[in-house]
Structures are given as C-alpha cells and as structure tokens.
Design a protein that fits this description.
By secondary structure, the protein is α/β, with parallel strands linked by helices. The protein has helices spanning about 25-40, 85-100, 115-125, 140-145, 155-165, 175-185, 210-215, 235-245, 270-285, 295-305, 320-330, 340-345, 360-370, 375-390, 395-405, 420-430; strands spanning about 5-10, 45-50, 60, 65-70, 105-110, 130-135, 170, 190-195, 220-225, 255-260, 290-295, 310, 335, 350-355. The strands form two sheets. Strands 3-4-2-1-5-6-7-8 form an eight-stranded mixed sheet, with helices on both faces.
C-alpha cells in the first residue's frame, strides 16, 4: 500500500498564481515537493485554506495528489497576517475530513508556523507525527521589519513551542538551522538541512535570442531580471537605485521586473510597483525599467533565459528559489549575502554576493559582469552544473522521503507536552 502524507499549507496553495504578496516560494515548495514525492510512490493530500468560491472542496490536481480546501473563516482572500484566529476552525474541518474519509496518514508535513500549529493539535488528537518546514521565522522577520511586521505577537511563542515539540524540523539552509538553534533552542538532533530545489523539466537553458523574441525584449540590450513577490523586503528598490549609478555606463541595459498582483503591471492593485516607479523617476531611470506584471510558471523560463544577469537582493531570505531557477537556465545571479542565497550562489563562480541595501556594491558587480563576456560565459556553465548537481526537486524529494522513513508514530504521544499549548485556548477564543 502506498504511504499517504498530509501536507498543510494554510495560506500558500499550489494552485495559486505566483508573484503576488502572499504567493511565492512556499507555493512552489509545496507544489514541487508533492509532485516529486508522488513520483516516488507517495499519495499526497495538500490541505490549504478555502479562499475562493470558484474552487471545489477537493481538487484532483496531479496523479497521486489532491488539494483539499479547508473551511476556516470566510471563503475569501485574507492576508496571512490575519489568519491565526481561523486555525482552530482549520483543524476542526481537517480532522472531520480525515475521519469522514477514514484516512490513514503516515505523517503530516506542515509548512509555515500556522500549519505547524494545526499539525500539533492533530498530533495530540489523532497521534499523527509531524514534520515542519517553517519557510520563515518570526524573530528573524522582526529583526529586519521591526514595527512593520504585522504578524501577531503570539507567533514567536508558537514557533518556539513547535521547534521544541515537532518530530523533525527541515531547515532549508545552514543559516536557517543556525537561527532555529540560536533563537528557538531547537534540538540539533531534530533539525535536518534539506534545501529547496528547481524543476529540471521546467527550467533549462535555451537560445537567448529566441527567448527574448518570445517575451518581446530587445535583443541588443543587456537584460537584468528581478522576479518574485512585490514586497519591500525583497529589495527591488535597491536594484532600481543601482541602475541610477549605471547611467553613464557604456552598456545598453534594461531592468525587467516580473511580479505583482495582476498579469499586467498595475500600481493601483500593487502599491510596491507604484513605489518602485517613483524611485525609478527619482533616479532618472524610468526608461530603463520595465514592469511586466505576474507571469504563469510556463512563461518564467523565457524570462530567465532572456536575461544576462538575475538579481535578488532581499534584506533577508530563508532560502530563495528564484536564484536556482535562474541558474538552471544558465543565468548568473547577483544576490544578497544572506540566508539561502549565500548557500546556493557561489561567490565569484555562479555569480556574486553583495550586502543587502547596498546599491553601490550592486552597481559595481553588475557593471563588472556585463563588461566581461568571458567571465559571464564561465559563470553560465558553472550555474548549470551546480544546480543540477545539488538542487533538483528530484534530489530534494529523495532526501525528504529518506527523512520521512526515520519518523515513527510516538509511543507516548499522550504523555508529551502539548505543542503550542499556550495558544490553544487563546486561539480558539479569537
């Protein structure tokens, strides 16, 4: 019999369009990991919050994979910062679905702290062990965002208890492991580093000129690409300011920005695009920046291949999947020397690492790379080799499957400390 795994991803559905405020790396992680685990023989149910009346309760998404929409609060889009109050309802609806369908899960794989909170309650109620991938940590977020962090203050307390009580924690890079141990006292023996990945069937090198024609970009310009969620912490403003320092460059260049809330760039629906457009005006580079809106997954490879350099300079980054996808297409990456980026990008070989919020350093690396064609070509080859050696989703799924096999149903579940117990009554009363 195939082993059944329950994924929980309360705000990040594998069915969502990418590039919006709450649609990014976690959506990709859940989608790709589940697909590759299914190819290894697992049956996967992905539980995500029901936020649209246009979808059914259960979607038979891929062979061996169902997406189960969980009733938790009103059926509409709600920002993830406001979802904690609905997690008791999420747990109740999920448990009812499990019982009504007589489902036997080997384990639950929770994604993000709220999913882990639900998984901890389910472990107490149904004795199902759980694995957690946090994807981001509240304390780290507060360090960088301060008062702009809108998550409930209870988040850190919940994460701390989950870190102590989860059967296994998957850290996405060494920095993630260090943060879990330093800030949350996570037991080292229950933290395993398994990186994110890229889909080798989706992202691969192709003819640059053909790719540019497909996405309607000038074949004579040097193309810099920024792709991802349009939120301030991603540091796209830093990239725009770096362009301002390249105004006297001999290179003919363009920054292409992929992402936003709509398929066409709309500053009204995406305030971050409006802010970036204003910065481009202030820097005198409006004519050098092209916003193209969010794009479907099947279009992204053309943008990666059309580009000479991919740039990602967030303030912090738990991992960062887009640099892997860029490198898989043979596009060198200039990224922030933080989190997962400093793990996936090899400075001087597959791109460069720069300090976040340092437009001067970024401009120097961009100028140096765009004027050194030999170095650019060397990096292109190194990128392809590195990601295919270490970061395919197939390799990641094999590591995750091996980790699953080590996890057994605890014999003393009922005697363990209830995870996130301090939040149980508080959340249910919310």
């Amino acid at each position: 019999m195939k082993k059944k795994i329950a994924f929980i991803s309360e705000h990040a559905s594998p069915l969502a369009s990418l590039g919006g405020v709450d649609s990014g790396g976690q959506n990709v992680y859940v989608a790709e990991l589940s697909k590759h685990l299914a190819s290894l023989g697992y049956e996967i149910d992905i539980y995500t919050r029901w936020d649209s009346r246009s979808v059914q309760k259960v979607v038979y998404w891929k062979p061996g994979i169902r997406v189960v929409h969980v009733k938790a609060g009103p059926i509409k889009v709600i920002e993830k910062e406001d979802l904690l109050q609905y997690m008791p309802a999420f747990k109740d609806d999920m448990v009812n679905f499990i019982k009504q369908n007589s489902l036997n899960y080997a384990l639950v794989h929770a994604n993000f702290y709220m999913s882990a909170l639900v998984a901890s309650w389910i472990k107490t109620e149904l004795s199902i062990p759980f694995v957690v991938t946090f994807h981001a940590l509240g304390i780290v977020r507060q360090i960088f965002q301060g008062k702009d962090d809108r998550f409930p203050t209870e988040r850190i307390e919940i994460e701390r208890e989950i870190a102590l009580n989860a059967d296994t924690i998957i850290a996405e890079c060494p920095q993630d492991q260090d943060d879990l141990i330093k800030y949350y006292d996570a037991p080292l023996e229950r933290v395993t580093i398994i990186p994110c990945g890229f889909s080798a069937s989706e992202f691969y090198p192709m003819d640059k000129r053909s790719a540019r024609k497909f996405v309607k970009l000038d074949t004579n310009e040097k193309i810099l690409l920024q792709l991802g969620r349009m939120v301030p912490r991603k540091g796209v403003d830093n990239v725009v300011r770096a362009l301002g320092k390249l105004k006297n460059s001999s290179q003919k260049y363009r920054l292409v920005v992929v992402g936003g809330e709509t398929d066409n760039p709309d500053p009204l629906s995406c305030p971050e695009i409006a802010r970036l457009q204003k910065i481009a005006d202030e820097e005198g580079v409006s004519d050098k920046v092209t916003f193209v809106g969010r794009k479907n997954r099947d279009q992204l490879k053309y943008y990666y291949n059309a580009s000479d350099v991919f740039i990602s300079t967030p303030w912090y980054e738990p991992f960062g999947i887009t640099p892997l996808e860029a490198m898989a297409c043979g596009t060198p990456v200039i990224g922030s020397n933080v989190g997962g980026i400093k793990y996936s990008v090899v400075d001087g070989k597959t791109g460069y690492l720069v300090p976040p919020n340092d437009a001067d350093s970024l401009a120097k690396k961009v100028e140096g790379l765009l004027t050194d064609q030999n170095r650019l070509e060397e990096m292109q080859h190194a990128c392809i080799k590195r990601v295919n050696t270490y970061f395919t989703w197939a390799k990641v799924a094999t590591q995750v499957a091996a980790l699953y096999k080590k996890i057994q149903v605890p014999s003393l579940v009922g005697q363990q400390k209830q995870p996130a117990g301090a939040m149980s009554k508080k959340s249910k009363a919310a």
